[in-house]
Write a structure and sequence with these properties.
By secondary structure, this protein is of the alpha+beta class. The chain has 2 domains: 213 residues, Jelly Rolls; 109 residues, Arc Repressor Mutant, subunit A (Orthogonal Bundle). The chain is 41% helix and 29% strand. A hairpin with a 5-residue loop joins strand 4 and strand 5. Helix 9 crosses helix 11. The longest helix is centred in the middle third of the chain and has 24 residues.
């Protein structure tokens, strides 16, 4: 069993030249725990971050959430030959496999499952000004085989044969994310825990993703997910609208018209993806944003309440207590 490490080189296109920015990223390295590395994207390059999370030997998560100022190029290489799950959560990413020359555009709501009997090598391109969010799982083949050993027949035949024979061929299949898979990805991206609790939570989510994908492979007559990518983009757009206008948000019917979904499907999509209704989600981000304001010491309770769209302090205090377990005035004193 081998440690699955993804080597990444970052460069941008500037004045028609390709400029390497690895040194800038290394200056922004943080290590929130012994198993995680966080890099904030320098403001000169864009906005966002990258994360490396090594859950156990043979199992790692890589997360990129980046809005580059210029076209951003990422070359990726692995030392060993992992089973890779790649999920595009937001935006669109151009990918190219160096060994095969195969190119594809991975749009939001899609991904791929890839296995090669040799180290992975490829490149990604993120367009200037476009926010892209990607989650990559790298799993050692021996770990993956151990996970699926009870039900090997559920795997696609070609992948099963490759894992058994390692015959030099490449397996790659496009994944259309179900609402269930997207919901798990959202939980990975917003995991609130730290240290051991974080590690155990994320490892559990990796197993959940594998289970959901294997279930999709194994279902006969599985439902067609072809319309999901379109709905997924609309739901994400609705989320972004709410986040940007939480002080004065549109009502449900206005929001539905803005993104082109019925209010019923929009609420259903939010519930599947975020575990709550549209305005349950709005309430959550309002209170989480207010909590951040109070913890950072930027605002007092009244200012935080009004900043996120509450006109009544009493309603804000009760909602805050229900959401966090304590009143905002108590939190302000702690900060």
């Amino acid at each position: 069993m081998k440690e699955q490490v993804l080597k990444r080189n970052f460069s941008i296109e500037k004045n028609s030249e390709i400029v390497n920015i690895n040194s800038s990223l290394e200056k922004a390295v943080e290590k929130p725990s012994s198993f995680e590395v966080f890099r904030k994207i320098p403001s000169s390059v864009g906005d966002g971050y990258t994360r490396e999370i090594h859950l156990r030997k043979g199992m790692s998560i890589y997360i990129d959430d980046i809005t580059p100022r210029n076209d951003l190029f990422i070359s990726v290489d692995t030392e060993h030959y992992p089973v890779r799950f790649l999920f595009t959560v937001q935006g669109a990413i151009e990918t190219r496999n160096k060994q095969t020359g195969y190119e594809r555009i991975m749009k939001a709501g899609t991904g791929d499952l890839t296995f090669t009997p040799y180290p992975l090598s490829g490149s990604l391109r993120k367009k200037a000004g476009v926010r892209t969010t990607r989650v990559t799982l790298l799993i050692d083949p021996e770990v993956f085989i151990d996970i699926v050993s009870c039900t090997p027949d559920i795997l696609p035949v070609q992948l099963r044969r490759l894992l058994e024979d390692r015959n030099g061929r490449v397996f790659s299949i496009v994944i259309n994310q179900s609402y269930a898979i997207s919901s798990v990805l959202y939980q990975i991206l917003t995991c609130p825990y730290k240290n051991l609790s974080r590690r155990l939570f994320l490892e559990g989510k990796v197993f959940e993703l594998i289970a959901l994908q294997l279930n999709a492979f194994g279902e006969s007559g599985a439902s067609d997910n072809s319309s999901f990518c379109c709905d997924y983009n609309k739901i994400c757009r609705a989320r972004d609208i709410l986040t940007a206008s939480m002080e004065e948000p549109p009502d449900l019917f206005e929001l539905s018209k803005m993104v082109g979904l019925s209010h019923t499907n929009l609420n259903k999509g939010f519930h599947e993806l975020f575990g709550t209704t549209v305005f349950g989600y709005l309430r959550r981000i309002r209170l989480e944003t207010a909590k951040k304001y109070l913890l950072d010491g930027d605002m007092n309770v009244s200012e935080a309440a009004y900043a996120v769209g509450y006109s009544s302090l009493s309603h804000f205090s009760l909602a805050f207590k229900e959401h966090t377990g304590f009143y905002p005035s108590t939190l302000k004193k702690r900060s």
